[in-house]
User: Fold Branched-chain-amino-acid aminotransferase from Stachybotrys chlorohalonatus.
Amino acid sequence: MRSLAASRAMLRRAAIPLAAPACRTTRHYSLEAKSASTSQLRGLEANRLIIEKTAKPKSLTKPEDLIFGNQFTDHMLSIEWNKETGWQEPRITPYQNLSLDPATCVFHYAFECFEGMKAYKDKDGNVRLFRPEKNMARFNKSAARIALPTFEPASLIELIAKFAKLDSRFIPDHRGYSLYLRPTMIGTQKTLGVGTPGSALLYVIASPVGPYYPTGFKAVSLEATDYAVRAWPGGVGDKKLGANYAPCIVPQQQAASRGYQQNLWLFGEEEYVTEVGTMNMFVALKNKETGQKELITAPLDGTILEGVTRDSVLHLARERLVPEGWKVSERKYTMKELAEASQEGRLIEAFGAGTAAIVSPVRKIAWKGQHVDCGLTEAEESGEIALKMKGWMEDIQYGDEEHEWSYKA
Ligand SMILES: Cc1ncc(COP(=O)(O)O)c(C=O)c1O
Assistant:
């Protein structure tokens, strides 16, 4: 008979090829998320849309009085799902409260994911979405990771476009104004059991918003957070789950209490720079040896959100800055590298990038008891690249430059 030790050794040998394939040098923390839906169920079909218009249209808020996320339009789009039949008919109804049992799983185990995107009005009055397929792809990835159902992206884009058009009177027709759209999915099963939700609700609400910087850019000061992390390898920081956001408020409050507008998320003992508040972070440096200018952002390694703005900035930079001699890099970079570049006068500028502001220039970063200066003079509120990016993106979003990223509703 084989001894226990010999059997264990055999098992260990047998297990090695499965756990660590010889070809892999780095560990890939990508979980194949299975959504709660299967192909036998009814898919999300835009042509089944039922519209019930409001009998009480709201009065419009003066554009200059709009506060982000405070006012909502007349209607909402809702689609229910259940595991027996799949997606039900989409409905646009008057904006209204939800009625949910206190035991509904979203309240207990955070079965919730969302998106943030905008509809813009062009000079001819057309409503335009910006790269909506990117938001849909991310929404499906987020939903699948928490066992909520996935959906047909083209159908939801069509429905969102119809909804945005129906409520388009809420979009002021000046540049800088838009309709912030909030697609949301929640698990609606009434149960305290921890398991796959058997029912879900996908809904979209819309909030008219003004320019992020009504009087022009205001560069922000950041505090590098070294006592808490937002995301980690193998975690869910690259998904837009509501559960990722609530824990970020206390570090944000701490930064604010010391006079900084945002906190900068670092990761690991190396203090890699990851994201700024709820934006992706970009820095522009001059190479120490060659003097070449480099626009850098952290790579998509699972610890940062795959921002639509991040992807757009990278794309535009490769198309329009590389021919001018710039290098564009998705690579890890540390606070130490930034501090060194700043001290040597090689840190050209830094900015956050996200749907709300497009770009948010950074003046300085508090780190280890010092301020890392991000290249702006006292009189400047933005660097050149942030300014250019904002202009390029808005030209596309408002249809002044015809571009495949702009989707006419
Ligand atoms: C954590 C986080 N990072 C980055 C972003 C920027 O993403 P996007 O450009 O898609 O708005 C957001 C905003 O949604 C965010 O919440």
In short: The helical segments are 4-19, 105-109, 132-145, 153-166, 249-257, 308-320, 335-343, 384-397. The chain has eight helices and 19 strands.
